[in-house]
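--- STAGE predict ---
source: upstream dedup step, 1 unique chain passed
mode: sequence only
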Amino acid sequence: MSKDPEGDREGQPTAAHRPTEPQRRYLERGLSQPGGKLPLFDADGREVAPRTVQACVASGWAEPWFRNPIKEDWLVCRLTAKGYAVLGVVQPSPSAPPHAGAGSEGAGAPKRRRKA
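--- STAGE serialize ---
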């Protein structure tokens, strides 16, 4: 049977296009980093397997960002829009200020403390 093209249009990854558990752990670590930077090491301090990085790049979930000049075989990557999507997260806008909308709730003078 052929692959259903409707599944891709809806943004739902098919079973063949979902990250494995190690790939998901690797990609999820980029959610908390500026620019979606992906780690070189796992949470236990071990190097992320190069095959995990390469598989994520090949699937379009990560992209090479820059090469480490000190250790050239380490490829520094970041999440792509497709990577955010496979994790079920909307990619943050790069042009939005870090605290967009901050202060809009009570414009004017700072709140005063009540005296007891």
